[in-house]
Amino acid sequence: MKLFIYLLLCSLFCNLSYAGITLGTGVTSATSGRVSPFLHGGYDDTNFALTLTSVGVKNDYYYHSAYNFVLVGQKDFPKYLWGNLRGGIGIGSHYAIRELKDGTNSNIKKSDFALGPAIRITWEFLPYTYIGLEAIFG
User: Model's pTM, two decimal places?
Assistant: First the structure.
């Protein structure tokens, strides 16, 4: 925990730090096409980025949880409009588990795992604020 706090403070206040710890939220279609909110966290450096994403939905009849892990090498591109554009390619994995409880049959439970190439593009239009796109092909 002390290391996490140290890295966070260094990334926020040191002029020599080119890394950042990211924590955010957004929407994803990882839950079979249903747009759902997700939790996103990671480590972003000038040369690589490591991100973890978790999303889940649940009600009385259904649940679906999905997890993504992406590791990409990245580089800066020329400025786009007024913000910094960064992107790269690498490897990613996806794991999902879902269950349907219909009440008449036994519960239907399925899981998926994918591993393959990944891309990541971010556009930092304000300090410490970006819009990003991550995709895993596998």
Answer: 0.72
